[in-house]
Amino acid sequence: MLSRFDRLRRSAAACVLAICVQVGQAQGGEAASPWDGDARSAMRLIAGSSEAPIAAGIEIRIQPGWHTYWRYPGDAGVPPRFDFAGSRNLESATVQWPVPRRIEEQGLTVIGYTSDVIFPLVVVPQHRGEPVTVRLKLEYAVCEKLCVPAEATAELVLAVAPSPYDETLAQAQSRVPRKRALGEGGTLAIRALRRDETHRRAIVDVAVPHQTDVELFAEGPTAAWALPIPVRSGAPAAGVQRFVFDLDGAPPGASYAGTPVTLTAAAGGEAIEVTAPLE
């Protein structure tokens, strides 16, 4: 049976532990805004320790069975819209997009994310060395069998301070496709982009390790272009997989000739982004 002294000592220890937990949560909270959302999805801002430029992230939490969209949603859907109006000491905020995946939705193929995702955010202050207050209004959509519009807001002061989210942001950054040139070598590369006028389609040759599955997405120069999602064509050759997409989805009066097309390829945990004219 515990003595009164032992009970007091355990009670004091418990209080110290509780205080430590609260302090730790407060310190972690300084690097993240509160979640804003509902049972389907929620959003918050998180901050990293980097200051040149400032590293941060937009984290969207998605319940199992739901998905949200990439910057180009594919056959249907709407991309997220990021509004930083009202931020303080903010010169620019560049949202980076982790590589998405194809999603089957009511007989259509869309492009997006089926689990929690962090969009790395590169923040440039107007006055270096002073804190930046990021205010974000996010408009997006989440879908299961039906699609639901969502809106969330967050505010976070970015100051030079240690952050518990550095590794999380580094992992998110590793999912952002690296920019490459057409024909540039590498384990994953886009070798060719050309028009096939006979069949009114574009042909894309992607170099990948043998028997590695590849995802390929194509975007036009502006949001007014609605390019079809590339599909595989023929059996893979040694180290090369061919994709095609119809020359469809151009805005009225626009021509595919010489139009810059952005191709995003992902395979084996690697992702690249290539922008080149369609000759």
Write the layout of secondary structure elements.
Blueprint: H1 4-29, E1 36-37, E2 41-51, E3 54-62, E4 68-74, E5 81-83, E6 90-95, E7 101-105, E8 108-113, E9 117-125, E10 132-143, E11 147-158, H2 166-174, E12 178-180, E13 189-196, E14 201-207, E15 215-219, E16 231-232, E17 240-246, E18 260-267, E19 270-277
Parallel strand pairs: 12-19
Antiparallel strand pairs: 1-2, 2-3, 3-9, 4-8, 5-10, 6-9, 7-8, 10-11, 13-14, 14-17, 15-18, 16-17, 18-19
Describe the overall structure.
- The chain is mainly beta and 279 residues long.
- The strands form 5 sheets. It has a 5-stranded antiparallel sheet with strand order 1-2-3-9-6.
- Mean pLDDT is 88; it is low at 1-29.
- The chain contains 2 helices and 19 strands.
Q: What's the end-to-end separation, in Å?
A: 86 Å
> What global shape is seen?
globular
| Share in helix | 10-25%
The overall average pLDDT, rounded, is 88
Largest sheet: 5 strands, antiparallel
Number of strands: 19
Summarize the structure.
This protein has helices at 4-29, 166-174, and strands at 36-37, 41-51, 54-62, 68-74, 81-83, 90-95, 101-105, 108-113, 117-125, 132-143, 147-158, 178-180, 189-196, 201-207, 215-219, 231-232, 240-246, 260-267, 270-277. The model is unreliable at 1-29 (pLDDT under 50). The chain is built from two helices and 19 strands.
